[in-house]
Design goal:
heterodimer, A: 330 residues, mainly alpha, ABC transporter involved in vitamin B12 uptake, BtuC, 2 strands, 1% strand, B: 244 residues, alpha/beta, Rossmann fold, 2 domains, six-stranded mixed beta sheet, 29% strand
Amino acid sequence: MNLQELLGGRKNKLADPRVARIRMYLNNLAVFFIVAMIWLSLTIATDTFGTVNNITNVLRQSSLWSIIAIGQTVVLITAGIDLSIGSVVGLTSCIVALMLNKGYPISVSVIFTMLCGLGVGAIHALGITKGRLPPFIMTLAGLTGWFGVALLITGAMPIGNLPADFKEFSRGDFIGIPNLFWCVIGIMVPTYIILNHTPLGNHLYAIGSNMPGSELNAVPVTRTIFFAYMFSGFCASVVGILVAARLSLGIASNGFTWELKAVASSVIGGTSLFGAVGGVFGPVLGATLLSTINNGANLLKFDPYWQRIITGLLIVVVVFFDQLKNKGNK
Amino acid sequence: MSEILHVNDIYKNFGAVQALSGFSMSVNEGEIVGLMGDNGAGKSTILKILAGNYLASSGTVNFMGKDVVFNSPNDARKQGVEVVYQDLALCNHLTAAKNIYLSREKKKFFFLMDHKHMNDTSQGILDQLNSSARPNDVVSGMSGGQRQAIAIARTRLSMPKIVLMDEPTAAVSVAQVPVILEYIRNLQKQKIAVLLISHRLPDVMKVCDRIVVMRLGEKVCDKSKDLCTPEEITGLITGAIKSA
């Protein structure tokens, strides 16, 4: 036996990076195909689905979920989870509405709200890294805690009377594409670059794959986890601002249960709940699928409770296959 | 041979558990030192102190003539300490090149990873190790030998002064053991010192210049391999012989 055979071992098909890439493409392609089929069926089955107004509406809704799903994906890649997203959306929609209501300029209100989102993420990361709390518990506390803060600062009342320029942004478009979708592109492109082409992205995947091993290899684990949760908080704050603009009011219940939409979109889009697997295109496709199901169910006058049941079933099926895939990797 | 590492009177406790009690040893340039002991003897603890994973409770580490404290694995690496961990510390979902360069990724344009440079260099190192692993291969699909090669390849990114190896032959097949021992000898030829932690007495006897035996956090033997017998080492490990 020569040295090559000894240290080299036999070539293994599973080691080929193309296999993992093809799996990801196939997953995205399958979700894309399902979305296309549902769109086609709904266009045939209803008079209104295929209208420009309705498609724009679906895209707007999916844009909001896409942004929080991208934030959630970055956290899931580290084998963590952010269950506070919905409450942070509500809280930040209230913060921006309160500031605008008090006469602060739009730019100041928006920047301050984004900083609040980053701050919320930093608090979660602090609890996880320094307090050694499991991400599930820390962000579950955030889910109820930030909702409480939003109720407290608004007195549980909706905050309206927002400036027209602010409201206009979420309803407008640029070269025929809704502004909200431009916001998705604005989040997607840098996230893609970070995940695939920077050391920080490599560290996110490394931590999700083997956190103790990453620590032994001098990966700045604390800093990287701070980035993941702050980024998720930032994405939630962007959506909080956009949803306040879209609905013309800030209210604590904005974004209610959206943390589950974010997890579902991300997982449907191929992100693994076990960490280290995920990208930016999948969550956008997942969010589009969920908003299509919601919209289609409304148009077909389905009982709205069924939408929740369908989303729940989708998560179970996707996670089941994710688990099978994960066993295969071990 | 000049002394490059000297640890003096190191104590380390984890709460009430005393892992190291006044442990001292030295390693010379290009020397291969075998560190042996039973489970819980403190071998991995001293390795992790030298690798910057743990801080000693007390005692000093002198490296290359200077008293040092390695606060992190990065500190240790910068000074010329490379480590091959027992579990290899690989990230299964990353490619070989990304594992080899983990936490010291080559950059271009200030913040982007230089994939080409990382792949080319990794390919070169893997070729030197005669490994068939390719830089773009994902670690999860690799054989045990290929994974070992990736862990070893990490130590070749810099020109280390010392390589710490924790049970490098424990997780490989019998046929792969001589290859790893040959690699250790090659390091010595390049005047790189090796601290080899191993349970496998035959490996240590084959490749080491000197053997240090630990028992319950203390050093019970430190002498040239030529002056040791396997029976004596076994007795020291088990406690049948108190010290030598």
